Amino acid sequence: MKAIYKVLTVLAIPGFLVFYSFVGGSPGGKTGSPGDGGDNCTSCHAGTPQNVGDWITSNIPEGGYAPGVTYTITAKGMREDVGKFGFELTAENAAGVKKGTFAVTDAAKTQLLGGGSSVTHTSGGNMPAGDSINWSMDWTAPESGSGQVRFYSATNAANGNGGNSGDVIYLSMLSVEEDITISVGENYLEDQISMYPNPATSVVNMKLPEGAEMHIFNMLGNVIEVRKNMRSIETIDVSSLQNGIYFVRVVHNGETHTSRLLKN
Questions:
Q1: Which of 13, 47, 59, 87 has the greatest CB tally within 10 Å of its CB?
Q2: Which residues, other chains included, contact 84 with Cβ-Cβ below 8 Å and sequence gap of 6+?
């Protein structure tokens, strides 16, 4: 009999790990979007998803997003007597192609997936305040001509019973248009920034507006370096950085542009 009990214990472990492996974030590709093949949290949690209309908000103007400009996107969850929340959010065009780049602004609650194409919760970012929770992140709009962008989120309101049944999955979507009234001259910051070589091994040369401010972030949203009142030509030493993807944010005259830097 003891041998049988040991076998049963071993068999029970995989089910335990399936549930707890995602406490620290989505495995990715579970937003319910066309680009994710419609997959959502029900791939791992039992139940039928419910559609909600206002769980994604942003500070993008009514006239639409400006290419290269960074905005704040907020996802939320609400449910009475909830145990924990989880989420994943992404941005795509109508064809399901990922658009724009996300950056973490609160590394305690959120983390990036897919090289910055989506965002999910952390192990410390799933506890509600009462019956609700909010997650905020930065999103840098894509290049001019990208057209309508749709944000998709899947949110898991977990009952905290230690299993993957009894949870409720919510799907939400927010559509934003591109502001086609902005001329190339008005969206000047992106055109004045260049960064080479990229990928980089030891140094990166940057051309940018005189007096600009620069922030370098890692994939977790941690600030690696800050430079203010920069010259029009700057050389950045990246030799001490670990290999991977970084985000370089330039701020000048109230405008912001974020570029992706690959260190190898």
A1: 87
A2: 23, 126, 127, 128, 158, 160
Please state, in angstroms and rounded to a whole number, the distance separating the CA atoms of residues 232 and 138.
26
- E-state strands within 17-69: 50-51, 56-58
Q: Can you name the CATH fold of 23-176? A: Immunoglobulin-like (2.60.40)
Distance of alpha carbon 138 from alpha carbon 102, whole angstroms: 6
CA distance 30 to 41: 6
pLDDT score recorded for residue 15: 34
d(CA 168, CA 152): 17
The answer regarding whether domain 188-263 maps to CATH 3.30.420.40 reads: no
Question: Residue 14: what are its φ and ψ, rounded to 5°?
Answer: -55, -40
- Residue 194 clears pLDDT 50, i.e. is over it: yes
Q: Are 28 and 39 contacting, i.e. CB atoms less than 8 angstroms apart?
A: no
Q: Where in the chain is the domain with CATH 2.60.40.10?
A: 188-263
> What percent of the chain clears pLDDT 70, i.e. is strictly above it?
84
Are 93 and 152 contacting, i.e. CB atoms less than 8 angstroms apart? no
Please give the backbone phi and psi of residue 53, each rounded to the nearest 5 degrees, phi first: -100, -15
Arithmetic mean of pLDDT, 1-11? 40
pTM metric for this prediction: 0.66
Would the pLDDT of 138 be above 90?
yes
Tell me how far the alpha carbon of residue 13 is from its chain's centroid: 31
